[in-house]
Design a protein that fits this description.
- This protein is 76% helix and 0% strand.
- With 240 residues, it is an all-alpha fold.
- It has one domain.
- Helix 3 runs parallel beside helix 8, helix 8 runs antiparallel to helix 11 and helix 8 runs parallel beside helix 12.
- It is globular and about 55 Å long.
């Protein structure tokens, strides 16, 4: 492994983009904030804490999924993978660097939602630790899905429609902005194909908003492992 490359790549493609393309940062947090506002208005403030906690999940998941367009561009148009294949950089180094860049890109949104959480007195040390662990696995799993999509498609024009549909299905339909108890268990297990579902359910339980559903911990861990394994395969680092 080459951690130095991963960190440099994440810094260049993630953190520096915040300064170079502030409009993209605003766009990335626009949808979660809009949904937060709608939940606040429609529920008369009763579900706002769910929406604040779910905002973390939606922000990470949506950015992780939409990053498939970047991964596809780098593979099909910029030919970055072809360049790195000729070096000692491995597919794991590349995937870690790109995943970290997506995570760094969400920093402004994370700070904003952290401020809202402090405003509503949602944070304790234990809750913050659970939040960090869950969001880290969510970033890994959703970024892995983006690598799967980027590696499977043959033409970059196809990625925009796929990402747009998946982003809605996998971040808005799951119980990110409302109590998971509103849904029957059968629907929860269907929606659990999206990592956002177990992540939101775990956080609702950890923050005392809904009953704990400990089986979702196993679901999130399992999905992270499976999606990462598939992502490594679909990255197609070396053509045979």
């Amino acid at each position: 492994m080459n951690p130095r490359f991963s960190l440099y790549f994440a810094w260049y493609y993630g953190f520096r983009v915040i300064g170079r393309g502030s409009s993209y940062v605003i766009a990335s947090i626009a949808t979660p904030l809009t949904l937060l506002f709608l939940v606040f208005v429609l529920s008369h403030g009763q579900l706002v804490e769910y929406a604040v906690v779910g905002g973390f999940v939606s922000l990470i998941a949506s950015n992780g999924l939409t990053s498939a367009s970047d991964a596809a561009f780098l593979r099909l148009q910029a030919k970055i993978q072809d360049l790195f294949i000729a070096t000692s950089i491995s597919s794991t180094d590349y995937m870690i660097g790109l995943t970290l860049s997506f995570l760094l890109f969400t920093t402004p949104g994370i700070v904003l939602y952290a401020a809202l959480s402090l405003l509503y007195h949602l944070f304790t040390i234990e809750r913050v630790l659970v939040l960090v662990a869950v969001l880290f696995m969510l970033a890994l799993s959703t970024s892995a899905i983006s690598f799967i999509i980027a590696g499977a498609i043959r033409h970059i024009r196809n990625v925009w429609g796929i990402v747009g549909i998946l982003s809605i299905i996998m971040t808005v339909l799951p119980p990110t902005y409302y109590p998971y108890t509103y849904l029957p268990r059968s629907i929860i297990y269907i929606l659990a194909i999206s990592p956002a579902t177990p992540a939101a359910i775990i956080l609702q339980g950890a923050f005392g908003l809904s009953p704990e559903f400990l089986a979702m911990i196993l679901v999130l861990v399992g999905e992270t492992i499976v999606y990462l394994s598939l992502a490594k395969y679909f990255t197609r680092w070396r053509e045979k």
